[in-house]
Each structure stands twice: as C-alpha cells, then as structure tokens.
Amino acid sequence: MHHIPNILSVFRIVLIPFFICFAIRGDMFEAAIVLIVSAITGFFDGFLARRFNWVTNLGKILDPAADKLTQIAVCALFAVRLYQYWFFFVFLILKEMLIASFTVYLVKKRVVLSGARWFGKITTALFYATMILIALFPALPVQVVYGLLVATTICALAATLLYIPEYVQHKKLIEPKIGLSEEQG
Question: Which has more pLDDT, 48 or 165?
C-alpha cells in the first residue's frame, strides 16, 4: 500500500503525452480533463504520503518531477497556442527548469529532500487552476487570462525566491568544510 503515492506520480507522468496529444489536436476540453485528473492525483499522492506516512525518497523525486514535467509541457503548448502570452509561459518554464536543476544537483549529492513547502503547493495549485480555466474556457476575456497569468507568475516568482535560501542551506551542508583536510593531514 505504501507504493500508492509513487504509482500516482508515475500515472501523472504517463498522462503528459495524452495532454500533449489533445492540446495539439485542439481538443482543449479533453486536455483540461487530463489536467484535472493530474491535479487530483497529485493532491492524493501528497495527501496519502503524509497521512499514512508513505513518504519515500523515491516519492520525493517522483512527485516534483511529475509536477515539473506536466507544468513544462503545459507551458510549452500554451506558449505556442496562446502566443500573445508567451512571456508568462517562458518564465514559468525557466522557473521550473531552475528549481529542477537545483533539485537534481542536491539529489546527485545524496541530499535527502524535505519535500514541497506550503508556498510551492500554493503555486502548483494556482498553476493548475489557471491552466485548467484557460483550457476549459478558451473565450475568456483577455483581461481575465492576463490577470490569471500575472497572478500565477508572481506566485511562481515568490515561491522560487523562497526556495533559493533552502537550496543554499542544503548546498552548505554538502560542501566540505574549509581547512578540514589540512587538520586531518
């Protein structure tokens, strides 16, 4: 039973090609349904892991990977489909790539990550809500779409700025202490 959250994360990754296929064909209602399923399974993934203490080191990698891969795919497709808003989508892609690179670096150094923080969860929830609304209601007024994207981008920027000190703290823990080798030798 403790593998259920990891299975849900893998399922979310498997959903990405379906979203891409629907979005490319212009079937935005179906693409939105895939995003809704992804968001719901993402919620249950985290809920079950925390509620039943099914948190695993693999899950700490799979869950954010599923989020980042989904968000990058959504932003890449929307940047093409809604090119008038390309700046927002490119910013969100760069943000995800930056956070992913920090995470990969720490994982390679065998740092055990603590998992998503509240500000990351809020950012992810706002991202999904915004993208689902944009996909479900393609005739939303420009001002509404713009407002949603501004709010999502500001929240993403704030979350990134809040995560950076944590990554710096982790990095300090893995760096060798200055002068340590001299004292030992």
Answer: 48
Alpha-carbon gap, residue 152 to 130, rounded angstroms: 7
| SS (HEC) of the chain | CCCHHHHHHHHHHHHHHHHHHHHHHCCHHHHHHHHHHHHHHHHHHHHHHHHCCCCCHHHHHHHHHHHHHHHHHHHHHHHHHCHHHHHHHHHHHHHHHHHHHHHHHHHHCCCCCCCCCHHHHHHHHHHHHHHHHHHHCCCCCHHHHHHHHHHHHHHHHHHHHHHHHHHHHHHHHHCCCCCHHHHHC
What's the distance, CA 132 to chain centroid?
15
The amino acid sitting at 123 is T
Please give the pLDDT value at position 111: 74
Domains and CATH numbers, the chain: 4-175 (1.20.120.1760)
Question: For 149-158, what is the mean pLDDT?
Answer: 97
Which pTM value belongs to this model? 0.86
Tokens of 116: 């998503």
